[in-house]
Amino acid sequence: MNVRRGTWAAALPSKCVTEVLARDRKCPECRHYFMSSNPSDFVVNYPLLRMARSLAATGLGFHADISINTSNPASVPQPNAGDCPAHGSRMFFRCMRCSVWVCRDCVVVDHPVPPRGLCRILAISDALEEMKKSHKVLVNAKVKACQKAKESLENKVSDLQAAQNQQRDTANRLRSLLVEVNANLKDLKSKKMEILKKISEIDSMVEAARHTGESVEQAATIDDYTAAIEDTNASLASLEKHVAEDTQEIPALLSMPVLSSQTLVGLLDAGTSIFATTEKEGQPRWARVTRQDDRLHLHALRDGLPGAGCFTLPVSGCLGLVSMCVLLV
Ligand SMILES: [Zn+2]
Ligand SMILES: [Zn+2]
Ligand SMILES: [Zn+2]
């Protein structure tokens, strides 16, 4: 029940207002004519309404249809959200637009439904049903978003795994390169020692030959002279023989160690730039080494030095490996 009034002094129960509007739109007390035909256009007189409710509660009702819960005359209790702090009556509804529990008077005054307003009013049980549903939708959306985030993280993990494998691969290639380079260093060192040894051997032989030459000069008798000549000839023959042997051995010692083409391909695949270097009339020259299919390719030589920090090897060391050479000297 609502107690409504127009701009005049009289106050009427809502039910009476409806009846009056349906009949002749004239106030039964003062015969004032109402311009509006809509009961909700009449302002609720809250002080009077509260008084009427208090009277109803004490059993001294002044109007037959006053009761606390006019919309639920049966004894089945309707779910409610407690008493309205503004109007004192039970809140049996929810405004879905404003997300608040409301009483019947709240609906009329502050939460008008179309066409007067934009509010959407539901009974509490329906409102709960709808809220549960939208909560479920929200939770599902959150779960879906989390799953998506998880998927993208899983993709990141496999990206990182791939990068890790690649780096490990590179490390293995560099390790085998280091092994190869160390072996080459050892080889160079022993070759150098070998050549130094040969040089000192030749030195001592030359010394011996010179010594026998002196003996020939100092010979005082025929016998001394003959013996000295024999010594000299033997010494020279031995020197000659030694030099002949060295001539055969030295080219092998002078050959430079090379890196295997497998290692070079590995370096190129790991993103290392390889340059071959050489000299022409004392001027440095360089050429890029690249991989083309399964072959190493030596590009045209240019004057100067390649950039600092590049991996370089002598052209002589890669000629045997490179399958296609374009030497535009
Ligand atoms: Zn009146
Ligand atoms: Zn209210
Ligand atoms: Zn509202």
Automatic annotation (TrEMBL):
Q: Which UniProt keywords apply?
A: Coiled coil
> In this entry, which stretches build a coiled coil?
143-198, 222-249
**From which domain of life does this come?**
Eukaryota
Determine if Coiled coil is one of this entry's keywords: yes
Keyword Coiled coil among UniProt keywords? yes
Q: Which SUPFAM superfamilies match?
A: B-box zinc-binding domain
InterPro entries to which the protein is assigned, alphabetical: TRIM45/56/19-like (IPR047153)
**Protein name in UniProt:** B box-type domain-containing protein
